[in-house]
Design a protein that fits this description.
The complex is a heterodimer of chains A (220) and B (647).
Chain A lengths: L17 H7 L5 E9 L5 H10 L12 E9 L5 E9 L3 H6 L5 E3 L2 E3 L7 E7 L3 H5 L1 H11 L6 E7 L12 H10 L4 E3 L8 H16 L10
Parallel strand pairs in A: 1-3, 1-6, 6-7, 7-8
Antiparallel strand pairs in A: 2-3, 4-5
Chain B lengths: L1 H12 L11 H4 L3 H8 L3 H17 L8 H10 L6 H5 L8 H10 L2 H7 L18 H16 L1 H24 L6 H16 L11 H18 L13 H16 L22 H11 L1 H4 L6 H14 L4 H12 L6 H14 L3 H4 L13 E2 L4 E2 H14 L5 H13 L7 H8 L14 H16 L9 H11 L2 H13 L3 H5 L4 H17 L1 H9 L4 H10 L11 H11 L1 H21 L3 H8 L14 H18 L5 H10 L4
Antiparallel strand pairs in B: 1-2
Helix pairs in contact in B: 1-9, 3-4, 7-9, 8-10, 9-10, 10-11, 11-12, 12-13, 13-14, 14-16, 14-17, 16-17, 20-30, 21-25, 22-23, 23-24, 23-25, 24-25, 27-28, 27-29, 27-31, 27-34, 30-31, 31-33
Classes of the chains: A alpha/beta (220), B mainly alpha (647).
GO molecular function, one term (chain B): GTPase activator activity
InterPro entries (chain B): Rab-GAP-TBC_dom, Rab-GAP_TBC_sf, Rab_GAP_TBC_domain
Protein name (chain B): Tbc domain containing protein
Chain lengths: 220, 647
């Protein structure tokens, strides 16, 4: 997994003031929180795995709760952005009320969409229902996300399947994203065709454009 | 024979006998061989043949005083066997009048079995006793029919043999001195007598191994008598060495990696140099195991097959003749029946996997399989713990009835699609759970039936892993029972319930526990805004089953059934303790999370993963958690809840 700390950076003793810690890193690394959402079984974990480890695991397990990944992305100008990727469970029950999404703590609610800079909304090209459900996911983002300029991307996964298995055409997906004014990607986690790297590269550069440096330090 | 039966029946019918079976073993244990004889269908015919065997064995001077010490040890170790109540729970409720009668009688069996654990030399000698009276004959027939008709009695009988086999296994493992060979022989001889005088239909498939062992030993016994030309039998060729060679062969032909347990002397595997008759055939089987493609237990069949093949070849006709003589011999009890039984088994089966009975659980965690319920030893322990904890009766038939009713109930289950999606991602690296195999379908049914009993909860992701782990050690009905118990009695329902109130409660308790036990770490986590739920939610939801290596889930469930959620708290505390040093040096939210869910120890989402290293880690966690956090118990949790005001 990518280590977001730059090499040679000494580990500092814990400081009582958390704001101070963040302030220290201002000139070094920027952070962005990305959530992977979408129906169950569309391949969210596979996308994250392909991006982080460059592998595809056929014996994948369904995600319980959420799992966390991080990876550093370097840009041509020498700067870099560390992506905190939250891979969530897509099951119906957690969609409604995941403990990770909600935490009643004194008076305010923290959820997984809180402070998310970007959301990758996935569907599977073999499952037309998962495309229809994207609207539900987008509504959830609007409802629970607290960052107005959150970047949303629509991703059709499993582009490697045969034509006979395909239920959603490339055109159909593109049109769907266009209608909602969102960027669109079709990816394959199975094939090492670079489609997923491209997705995250473009996402990262867009995050960098849309958010100021200060905004890219708010985490979790 | 009749007189012996009388004595036996007197003892069986006397319900108060014996008051303390284990202590009185030496005196009371003489009649088991007779008991089994009576229970066999051809009791009259058999009794004569078995007597001749007894004499043979006796004259071969194999027998010495029975090892009472071992008996005591085993009886102490085998805590489950000590509890006849539990056995009685398995007694079926088949409703034919004959069975009803037999069920009543069966309840006295455990006692009868217990007292006959050791067969002394004297028991093998015929004794003069009065013929049974009419009443006793009637009782005898009832008793006998119970053994024919009722499968539960088979279960009990098999259980007894399990105990005996364990004892022999232990004996061989523990014995390092050649001097004790005699004792081992005695033990084996006991086994021979008991096993051979038991009708084959009562043997569970697991005993195919032992049957071959018996035949071998018997042959060895008769060999020393000089019935067969002892071509190269050296006086040093002990029973054990033959068994050792045998187990080697089995390992070879099974393709298993298990170490032979009976190692003592180095024996060459040369086909023509050592051994005679049976042993020789087996050796040739070892050499030709690829040809026969028999990879399960019945090396005996392999021997016979080898024999038939050898018969056609001109070179080894002598051997074939010898062996067929051996097989036809009357001195070897039940060997023909054994053979036909095994052959039948072989014909039924299509491959090595199918040699396994359907009644066998999928795990390799214990040698013992319980015939009628296909639960392994661990599952038995879980049920026992549940029984003690909830103070509810465990009646397999009742559960089965309930399950069958659920199975028949036609209902629209909302989560069917989700279950199908998740089954496709449940331990796909294990063939049993791969798509279109037995485990896949079974787990599907179990999960759907669980949804049927509570539609509002339905299926929660994570239940699939719990179900799969339990299914490995039991069968469909038991898995359903265990998960249902987890949901109802172990408050898993609250964790899965609306708004996840149970889960939030666990998070808060965990937070308090960390603060109490490791305040520095608690401060550090809070400072870096690492909440408990971000790293532990899947641990709570799937009870670690989706996170730890599958082989370690048995320990986990034993701990969880015993201590409920306290065990999960302890495990999490142990994990935090293990990584504490590392975490305290990290001041980065993401890096802390990654350190906590270290790739090295959590197999999820990992392709190249050192499973052994991970298993060692989890072994450490499970063995140390009661030492390091022994004071964490229900009372302690209650204090935490009061202190931190957790409802």
């Amino acid at each position: 997994m990518g280590n977001c700390n730059k090499k040679g950076k000494p580990s500092r003793p814990s400081v009582r003031d958390p704001i101070n810690i963040r302030g220290d890193k201002e000139n070094k690394v920027s952070y962005a929180k990305v959530v992977l959402i979408g129906n169950s079984g569309v391949g969210k974990t596979s996308i994250a795995q392909r991006f982080i480890e460059g592998k595809f695991d056929e014996n994948n397990k369904n995600t319980v709760g959420a799992s966390y990944f991080q990876k550093n992305i370097s840009f041509k100008d020498g700067s870099s952005l560390c992506l905190y990727i939250w891979d969530t469970a897509g099951g119906e029950k957690f969609q409604a009320l995941a403990p990770l999404y909600y935490r009643v703590k004194s008076k305010y609610i923290i959820n997984i969409f809180q402070n998310a800079h970007a959301a990758v909304v996935c569907y599977s090209v073999t499952d037309d229902d998962s495309l229809k459900q994207i609207d539900t996911w987008l509504n959830k983002l609007d409802e629970h996300g607290n960052i107005a300029k959150m970047i949303k991307v629509v991703v059709g996964n499993k582009s490697d399947v045969d034509k006979s298995e395909r239920r959603v055409d490339l055109k159909e997906g593109k049109l769907f994203a266009q209608q909602r004014d969102l960027p669109f990607f079709e990816t394959s986690a199975l094939l090492n065709d670079g489609s997923i790297d491209e997705l995250f590269q473009k996402l990262a550069s867009q995050i960098k454009q849309s958010f100021t440096k200060e905004e890219l330090h708010a985490t979790v | 024979m009749k007189s012996k039966q009388k004595l036996l029946i007197e003892r069986i019918s006397d319900s108060s006998y014996p008051p303390k079976p284990f202590k009185q073993l030496p005196q009371k244990s003489k009649d088991f061989s007779l008991l089994t004889n009576q229970l066999s269908p051809k009791c009259q015919v058999q009794s004569t043949t078995s007597n001749s065997a007894f004499f043979n064995l006796d004259s071969s001077s194999l027998l010495i005083k029975p090892p009472f010490k071992e008996e005591k040890e085993i009886s102490q170790n085998n805590s489950i066997a000590k509890k006849p109540q539990f056995k009685a729970a398995f007694i079926s409720s088949k409703e034919s009048p004959e069975n009803k009668l037999s069920i009543q009688k069966i309840k006295s069996i455990p006692k009868a079995l217990k007292i006959t654990n050791v067969i002394s030399k004297e028991s093998l000698l015929p004794r003069k006793l009065a013929p049974p009276s009419g009443r006793q004959k009637k009782q005898m027939s009832v008793y006998s029919s119970s053994y024919h008709g009722n499968s539960d009695s088979k279960y009990l009988l098999n259980k007894h043999f399990d105990r005996l086999t364990t004892r022999i296994d232990k004996k061989f493992r523990d014995d390092k001195k050649p001097a004790s060979t005699q004792k081992s022989r005695t033990l084996i001889t006991e086994l021979i007598i008991e096993r051979v005088s038991m009708p084959e239909s009562y043997r569970s498939p697991r005993y195919q191994n032992d049957i071959t062992l018996i035949n071998l030993t018997e042959f060895n016994a008769s060999n020393t008598q000089g019935n067969y030309e002892p071509r190269l039998t050296s006086p040093k060729t002990s029973t054990r060495s033959i068994i050792k060679r045998f187990s080697n062969l089995q390992d070879k032909s099974c393709g298993r990696n298990t170490q032979p347990q009976y190692i003592e002397t180095q024996e060459s595997n040369n086909t023509n140099a050592t051994g005679t008759g049976m042993a020789q055939i087996s050796v040739s089987n070892g050499n030709q195991s690829e040809q026969f493609d028999i990879s399960h237990q019945s090396s005996l069949i392999a021997g016979v097959e080898a024999l038939s093949q050898k018969q056609s070849s001109t070179n080894s006709q002598n051997l074939a003749h010898q062996a067929s003589d051996l097989l036809n011999s009357q001195t070897i009890l039940g060997i023909n029946r054994t053979l036909s039984f095994l052959k039948g088994k072989l014909q039924e089966s299509k491959g090595p996997h199918h040699l396994r009975s359907k009644k066998r659980s999928q795990c390799d965690c214990s040698k013992q399989q319980y015939y009628d319920t296909s639960m392994c030893e661990n599952c038995l322990i879980w049920i026992q713990i549940i029984k003690n904890k909830t103070r509810q009766n465990f009646d397999f038939q009742v559960i089965k009835k309930k399950y069958d009713q659920l199975n028949d109930r036609e209902m629209v289950v909302d989560d069917e699609n989700q279950i199908a999606r998740d089954l496709f991602r449940t331990f796909q690296d294990i063939p049993y759970f791969s798509k279109d195999s037995d485990g896949y379908e079974t787990l599907n049914r179990v999960l759907i039936n669980l949804c049927k009993i509570d539609q509002s909860r339905g299926y929660i992701q994570g239940m699939n892993f719990i179900g799969a782990c339990l299914l490995l050690h039991s069968d469909e009905v038991l898995t359903f029972y265990l998960i249902e118990t987890l949901l109802k009695e172990y408050e898993l329902n609250q964790v899965y319930g609306q708004e996840f109130l149970g889960l939030i409660k666990h998070f808060k308790i965990m937070e308090g526990l960390i603060q109490e036990k490791m305040p520095d770490l608690g401060d550090h986590l809070r400072l870096n805004q690492v909440e408990i739920e971000v790293f532990s939610s899947d641990w709570f939801i799937s009870l670690f089953t989706s996170s730890i290596p599958l082989t370690k889930t048995t320990k986990l469930f034993t701990a969880f059934f015993k201590d409920s959620w306290v065990s999960i708290y302890k495990i999490i505390l142990m994990i935090l303790k293990y990584f504490k040093k590392k975490i305290l040096q990290i001041n980065e939210y993401g890096d802390i999370l990654i350190a906590l869910k270290s790739n090295e120890f959590f197999p999820q989402n990992q392709q190249s993963f050192d499973i052994k290293k991970s298993e060692i880690f989890w072994d450490q966690i499970f063995s140390l958690m009661d030492i390091k956090f022994g004071d964490v118990d229900e009372g302690f949790i209650q204090q935490i809840r009061i202190k931190y005001k957790i409802k």
